[in-house]
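2 proteins. here.
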Amino acid sequence: MAGSDDELTRFVREALARGEDRDTIEHVLVAAGWPRHRILLALGRFAAVDFPVPVPRPRPWLSAGETFRYLLLFTTLFLAVWGLGDLLFEVIDRLFPEGGGTGAAWAGFAEAVRLPLAQMIVAVPVFLHVSWRLRRALRRDPTRRGSGARKWLTYLALFVAAIVAIGDLVGLVYTLLGGGLTVRFLLKALVVGAIAGGILAYYLWALRRDDADT
């Protein structure tokens, strides 16, 4: 794949150097069987400026510091949503206790939610701060949108969220088919689905925005 991309980039560079316009280059490459998204990526590597030779655009680069920040971002995201889920589960357990009685349902609630609250109190500010730092870096250098660390970790977060959402749906259908669906279980399934679905929707939108900007 890397070799073919290099070959495509060389062709685009030579065609631009000979004065061919971008639409013609794209048309020829499409006719030759190249995927359009790879053609546009190759063309996007050269700035559309008036100069005797093709001018390359700056390309995204990978640094240990950037990888650390994205790892920290997604780790704190995981801790925050895990804490939120645990907190909501505890509330649901108290509102709909298994025995049906509500007299002692709230006993020990403060102790039960201490860990999820601690996770959220620590993770949410760190997540917001790191997100702000990364957004500021993207505004200063838009080429960072193509960062390998950003792409890989975003897709990893999408993978985890998708697996959780699928597992949640499987559990819901399984319980429904067994006739054991309760309000308590349904609410917990909705909490998991809403959290996983929110993460999926946001990061899919972010990836589409990055592709459009690229």
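next one coming up
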Amino acid sequence: MQIISTIAELRARLTNERAIAFVPTMGNLHEGHLSLMRLACEHGECVVASIFVNPLQFGPSEDFDKYPRTLEADCAKLQGLADVVFAPSVNEMYPAQQTMFVELPPIADELEGAVRPGHLRGMATVVLKLLNIVQPQVAVFGKKDYQQLLIVHQLAVQLNLPISIVGGETVRTADGLALSSRNQYLSDAERVEAKFLYQTLQGMKQAMLQGERDMERLQKQAVEALAARGWQVDYVAVRNQSDLLPRSRLKGELAKHDLVVLAAVRLGNTRLLDNVEVSV
């Protein structure tokens, strides 16, 4: 496995590769990331992982400097999974002030976009830069960041990138908590409580499977249940899987609806994201 820090060296290394699978990360890797790496191994002969903490997707109140940087440990975990690790500096990725950005569709102003203005624009811009640098045939992203995956997929389609975007399933602990680098910030008591988020989303899914069609009522009940236990709720929303547009009520007994329940919540000082897909 090679660890490369410059764009020029990376491009030279990949010049003759014809089946590249790419997994972009911000490091601090866990089993969720490694599952994406294993999925990438199924889609490419040369597997590239990037480790880059992207300043463009941090807001003014979000501490970019405190984001955990664990490059040595990350590279140890990637042994046997990655052929190349691209770990550029901020100056390498942004040698001058970035004044050109990806203009995103209106859905980027909702959900995460409403809570973290500019985050998705910064994400999409660095993803486009990384895809241009690596030039993979396949890029793998996790479904846990569902809105990000949708936007990246639209980016590839609408900008005619010759890249297939593959979504990897969310990896969970035994009690259902979605793996995240943020989980390390949960106290012992918060960690026990954290499983309630997945249980809440699963409860909404089961209600829909049993015939509930009033999505606004389901959302309201979920928010109230979380708030009653001391959670701060940014959103709980039922959306279409295909475009993340809202669904307040389902109609048509014979129609099939591919939906996703998305949530962003805070437990203590830790912000958690999760989602559950459901077809009814």
